[in-house]
Design goal:
By secondary structure, the chain is an alpha/beta fold. It is built from six helices and nine strands, in the order E-H-E-E-H-E-E-H-E-E-H-E-H-E-H. Helices cover 33% and strands 20% of the residues. It has a seven-stranded parallel beta sheet, sandwiched between helices. Strands 3-5 form a two-stranded parallel ribbon. Strand 7, helix 4 and strand 8 form a beta-alpha-beta unit. Helix 1 packs across helix 6 and helix 4 packs parallel to helix 5.
Length: 206
């Protein structure tokens, strides 16, 4: 049965794209980033495509490709457009689909809607959490909001282990931990494949 996995973060620059590449590789899924803001020459779709080595995954085009690295609502305004959720159509595929968000859940898309509004009721939501001062609060808020909305939520930790942070998040949420992506010196397709093999069993159980 085809499943959809939405990758969100507790903030920006926490490792969503690397996590998305790993999940895509582990499940040999398709990948889709609905909204890309900035870095169009080296966008997240291109980054994931370079990191994924299986031949089954397909990489679907952005619904919105915005010029400026800013919150989507602001980047859209600079481009002279407004993001319309009715124009964001999930790609048709018979494969599993990994969907990467932008920033955190409440990043605005327009004057009334946020990234959270992109997440459908049947999606498995994977939260990427990275330790920094304030990350416990950001992680718990993100998970609580998703759970209140009725989503199935799991977590990937990113970066160097911080035991007290990870333990309290697990105790206070009791959600499934898929694993941790270490602070690697670099990420290439071989490193992604190693993590894919580590995470596959837990991902397949979601």
């Amino acid at each position: 049965m085809q499943k959809k996995y939405f990758i969100t973060g507790i903030s920006t620059e926490v490792g969503k794209t690397i996590a998305s590449a790993i999940v895509t590789e582990a499940l040999k899924a398709d990948y889709w980033k609905p909204i890309q803001a900035g870095e169009l020459d080296n966008c997240d779709t291109k980054k994931v495509e370079k990191l994924v080595s299986n031949l089954q995954s397909k990489f679907h085009p952005n619904s919105y490709a915005l010029q400026t690295s800013m919150s989507p609502h602001a980047a859209a305004e600079i481009d002279g457009i407004e993001i319309d959720l009715s124009k964001i159509s999930v790609p048709k595929t018979k494969n599993n689909l990994v969907i990467e968000g932008a920033g955190g859940l409440l990043v605005p898309l327009n004057n009334s809607e946020t990234i959270l509004d992109l997440i459908k009721s049947d999606y498995n939501v994977i939260v990427v959490s990275r330790h920094y001062l304030g990350s416990i609060n950001h992680t718990l808020l993100t998970i609580k909001l998703l759970q209140e909305k009725g989503f199935d939520v799991s977590i990937i930790f990113s970066g160097e282990e911080h035991k007290t942070t990870e333990e309290i998040i697990q105790k206070m949420t009791t959600i499934s931990v898929i694993g941790r992506i270490e602070e690697e010196p670099y990420f290439d397709s071989n490193v992604i494949l190693e993590y894919a093999e580590l995470f596959r069993e837990k991902l397949e159980k979601l």
